[in-house]
C-alpha cells in the first residue's frame, strides 16, 4: 500500500495504519494494521455490507489519535446514488475503539448483513521491516459468546487481541457480523472495542493498551490541549511559521512514549512506523531541539537512559560499561534474542550526547538536582569515551560491531551500509571514526567540566577534562582537515586514511565547537554552497561525490534534523545569515508537507523540482524532524541561556516578517522574544 494512501493515528507506541476506507489488509512486508509495543495485533479489519466493500467519500484525521471515514456501499463511479451512508469513527489510546454508524436514506426499509472480517498475524515489527514473516509459534482464535479472541503462543510468550461489541454480534474465527433491519431515515450504530494483552501463566496478566473509550478520548483531548497551552505561543506574519510550529507541537505530543518502567512519564519515540520506541541518539537530539518549548521531555529521557546505561561487556548487545543504549524493543524477536534490541547499545554517539543534553538541560532549567543525581552515570559515560570507545588507541571515538550477525555495521547517525566512503566511492574497513562524533566528545568534555566545577565539587576533574578537550581539538584539526578541499573528512579508517568526501556532517562540527575559528568561514561557505545546499536544505553528501544520489538515504537526501543542527552550529560561529538561509529553505519545504516535515526528502536542486520530493519510505511523523522547526526557531531568534538569563539575538530570513515567541520557560521564569525579518527588496521593486 502506498504511503500516500494510508491514514495513520497514533498514541505513543500504539498506532493504526489503514486504507482511506478504514480497512486493513496487511501483507507481511507492509506496516499496516494495529501495532502496540512492536507487534501487530490486527492485520485484517475489513468492513462489508451485504457482501459489498465500501467506497470512501472522504476521511478526516481529526486529531493524531482519532479519525473518521465517510463511506458508501459499492465501488466508485462517476456518480454514486447511495441509499446508505456509513461513518466509521476510530480512536487510539493504547488499543483502539471503532464506532460504526449506518444511515438509511431510502424511502423503504432495508435488511442489512454487516460484517467485519478480523485477523491478526502477530508479526513482530522487525519481521515486517525485514520482509521476513517467519512465525515459530502457534496462531489461534477462540470464539466466545460475547467476544472473539485472537492469539499467538510461543512458549511463555503469549499475545492476544480481544474484540467485543456494544451490540449483540455473531462471532466466528474470522470476524463477526450483525443482522440489522433499518426503517426509512433510521440509523444504527455499534461500538467495537479492541484490546491488546500480554498473557502469562494463569491468564491475562498485562493489558498493553488503554482502550480509547469516550472518557479516555476526552482525557486525550484534554492532555493535548494542556500540552499546547503549556508550550510557548508563536505568532507570525508568515503563515508557514505558526502553522508548522503548531503541527510540530501536535506531532511531538503524538510521539510521546511511556515505557512500562516509567509509570506514565514520557519521552519522544523516534518515528512512525518503524521506530515507535525509545532510542538513545534520536530521543536525545529531539530533546535538544525542543528544550525551549517542552523541557520536561529532557528530564524523563535522561533518567530512563541513565537507568539503562550499560554495565557489563556483552558482545551480542554491543554493550560496554557506561555506554548509552541505541534502541529498546519489546516484541517477539527481542524476547527470544533473535535480534539484540533488549536493549541494544550499538550507537557510537548516544553516550557523549547524553552528557551534552544533561548540561544543556541544566543551563535552561536550573535543575541542579538532576545534574547531581546523574553524576555517576555522567562519569561512566566519560569513562566509556576514553577507555572503551578508543578502539585504535589514538584518542578518537571509533566503532566496530561485535555482534556480526544482527548488530549494526554503521553506528553513527548515518547508519546505512554505504553511508561512509572514500572519495573514489569505495568503503573503508572497520573500525571507523566519523567526524561529528569527535565533535560531540569534545563538547561533552567541556560541558562535563562545567558540571564538575560548579555542581560536583571536583575542580581537578574539571581541569583534566578541559585539557583533554583542548588536546582533542588540536589533534582533530590536524588529522581530519582535507587541505585541497578545505573541509573536514567524513571519517578516518583504522590506518588514519581520510574518507575525503564533502558531507553535511561537518556542519555538526560547528555546533560542537571543535572547528578552529580560522576554518569556520570555509565550512560555512560549504554549507550554503551549490554542492551541498539545494535551496531547500543541505544535502547529506555533496553533489559531485561518487556516491552522490539525490534520493540515496544518506548519500544526497536532505534531512531536516541534520539541517537544524547545522543552522545552530552556524549561529554559534557567528554566521547568522547562513543559518537563516538554511532555516528559510527547510521552513519553505515544510509547507509542502502541511507543516509535517518527513524524515528525509530528495536532494534535487530547488529550481529543478519546484517542490521537495519526499523520500519513498520516510518515517512521518518522525521525532527529530518534528523537532527541527523548533530548533530553527531558536536559531533564528538567537535564543541562548546565558548566566541565568535568556539572551535573544534575532536574525530572520529575508521576507520572514514579524515573529513573536511568548512565555519561553526556563530558570528565568517566562520570557518573550520578538523579531522582524528584513524586507525582500526585489519584491518591493516588482
Automatic annotation (TrEMBL):
Cited SUPFAM superfamilies: Six-hairpin glycosidases
Which Gene3D superfamilies does the entry link to? 1.50.10.10
The Putative glycogen debranching enzyme N-terminal domain sits at 10-192
Q: What Pfam families does this protein map onto?
A: GDE_N_bis (PF14742), MGH1-like_GH (PF22422)
InterPro entries in UniProt: 6-hairpin_glycosidase_sf (IPR008928), 6hp_glycosidase-like_sf (IPR012341), GDE_N_bis (IPR032856), MGH1-like_GH (IPR054491)
Domain Mannosylglycerate hydrolase MGH1-like glycoside hydrolase: start-end pairs: 329-591
Q: Where are the transmembrane segments?
A: none
Q: Which domain of life is it from?
A: Bacteria
**This protein is called what?**
Amylo-alpha-1,6-glucosidase
Tell me the organism. Answer: Micromonospora humidisoli
Amino acid at each position: 500500500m502506498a504511503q500516500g494512501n494510508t491514514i495513520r493515528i497514533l498514541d505513543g507506541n500504539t498506532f493504526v495504519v489503514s486504507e482511506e476506507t478504514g480497512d486493513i489488509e496487511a501483507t507481511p512486508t507492509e506496516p499496516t494494521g494495529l501495532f502496540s509495543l512492536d507487534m501487530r495485533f490486527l492485520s485484517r479489519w475489513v468492513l462489508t455490507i451485504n457482501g459489498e466493500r465500501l467506497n470512501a467519500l472522504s476521511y478526516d484525521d481529526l486529531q493524531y489519535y482519532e479519525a473518521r471515514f465517510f463511506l458508501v456501499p459499492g465501488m466508485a463511479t462517476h456518480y454514486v446514488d447511495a441509499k446508505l451512508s456509513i461513518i466509521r469513527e476510530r480512536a487510539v489510546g493504547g488499543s483502539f475503539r471503532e464506532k460504526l454508524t449506518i444511515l438509511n436514506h431510502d424511502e423503504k426499509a432495508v435488511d442489512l448483513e454487516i460484517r467485519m472480517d478480523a485477523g491478526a498475524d502477530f508479526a513482530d515489527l522487525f519481521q515486517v521491516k525485514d520482509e521476513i514473516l517467519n512465525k515459530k509459534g502457534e496462531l489461534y482464535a477462540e470464539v466466545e459468546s460475547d467476544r472473539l479472541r485472537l492469539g499467538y503462543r510461543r512458549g511463555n510468550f503469549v499475545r492476544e487481541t480481544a474484540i467485543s461489541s456494544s451490540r449483540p454480534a455473531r462471532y466466528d474465527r474470522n470476524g463477526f457480523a450483525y443482522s440489522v433491519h433499518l426503517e426509512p431515515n433510521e440509523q444504527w450504530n455499534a461500538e467495537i472495542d479492541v484490546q491488546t494483552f500480554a498473557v502469562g501463566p494463569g491468564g491475562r496478566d498485562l493489558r498493553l493498551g488503554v482502550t480509547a473509550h469516550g472518557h479516555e478520548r476526552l482525557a486525550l483531548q484534554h492532555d493535548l490541549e494542556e500540552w499546547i497551552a503549556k508550550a510557548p505561543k508563536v505568532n507570525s506574519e508568515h503563515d508557514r511559521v505558526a502553522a508548522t510550529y503548531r503541527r510540530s507541537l501536535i506531532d511531538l505530543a503524538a510521539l510521546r512514549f511511556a515505557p512500562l518502567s516509567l509509570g506514565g512519564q514520557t519521552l519522544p519515540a523516534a518515528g512512525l512506523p518503524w521506530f515507535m520506541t525509545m532510542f538513545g541518539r534520536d530521543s536525545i537530539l529531539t530533546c535538544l531541539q525542543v528544550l525551549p518549548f517542552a523541557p520536561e521531555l529532557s528530564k524523563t529521557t535522561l533518567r530512563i537512559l541513565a537507568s539503562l546505561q550499560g554495565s557489563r561487556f556483552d558482545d551480542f548487545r554491543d554493550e560496554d560499561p557506561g555506554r548509552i543504549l541505541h534502541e529498546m524493543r519489546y516484541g517477539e524477536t527481542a524476547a527470544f534474542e533473535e535480534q539484540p534490541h533488549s536493549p541494544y547499545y550499538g550507537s557510537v554517539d548516544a553516550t557523549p550526547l547524553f552528557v551534552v543534553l544533561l548540561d544543556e538541560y541544566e543551563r535552561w532549567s536550573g535543575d541542579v538536582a538532576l545534574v547531581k543525581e546523574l553524576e555517576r552515570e555522567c562519569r561512566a559515560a566519560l569513562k566509556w569515551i576514553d577507555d572503551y570507545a578508543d578502539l585504535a588507541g589514538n584518542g578518537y571515538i571509533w566503532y566496530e560491531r561485535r555482534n556480526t550477525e544482527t548488530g549494526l555495521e554503521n553506528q553513527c547517525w548515518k547508519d546505512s551500509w554505504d553511508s561512509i566512503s572514500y572519495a573514489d566511492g569505495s568503503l573503508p574497513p572497520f573500525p571507523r571514526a566519523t567526524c561529528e562524533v569527535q565533535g560531540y566528545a569534545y563538547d561533552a568534555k567541556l560541558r562535563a567540566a562545567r558540571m564538575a566545577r560548579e555542581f560536583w565539587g571536583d575542580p581537578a576533574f574539571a581541569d583534566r577534562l578541559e585539557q583533554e578537550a583542548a588536546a582533542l581539538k588540536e589533534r582533530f584539526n590536524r588529522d581530519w582537515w582535507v587541505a585541497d578541499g578545505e573541509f573536514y573528512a567524513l571519517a578516518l579508517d583504522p590506518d588514519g586514511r581520510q574518507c575525503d568526501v564533502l558531507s553535511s556532517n561537518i556542519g555538526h562540527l560547528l555546533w560542537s565547537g571543535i572547528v578552529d575559528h580560522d576554518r569556520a568561514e570555509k565550512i560555512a561557505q560549504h554549507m550554503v554552497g551549490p554542492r551541498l545546499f539545494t535551496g531547500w536544505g543541505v544535502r547529506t553528501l555533496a553533489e559531485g561525490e561518487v556516491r552522490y544520489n539525490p534520493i540515496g538515504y544518506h548519500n544526497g537526501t536532505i534531512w531536516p534534523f541534520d539541517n537544524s543542527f547545522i543552522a545552530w552550529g552556524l549561529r554559534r560561529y557567528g554566521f547568522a545569515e547562513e543559518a537563516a538561509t538554511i532555516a528559510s529553505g527547510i521552513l519553505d519545504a515544510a509547507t509542502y508537507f502541511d507543516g509535517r516535515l518527513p524524515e528525509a526528502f530528495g536532494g534535487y536542486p530547488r529550481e529543478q523540482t519546484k517542490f521537495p520530493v519526499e523520500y519513498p519510505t520516510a518515517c512521518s511523523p518522525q521525532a527529530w524532524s518534528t523537532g527541527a522547526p523548533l530548533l530553527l526557531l531558536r536559531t533564528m531568534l538567537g535564543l541562548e541561556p546565558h548566566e541565568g538569563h535568556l539572551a535573544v539575538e534575532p536574525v530572520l530570513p529575508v521576507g520572514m516578517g514579524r515573529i513573536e515567541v511568548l512565555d519561553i520557560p526556563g530558570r528565568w521564569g517566562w520570557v518573550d522574544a520578538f523579531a522582524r525579518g528584513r524586507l525582500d527588496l526585489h519584491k518591493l521593486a516588482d
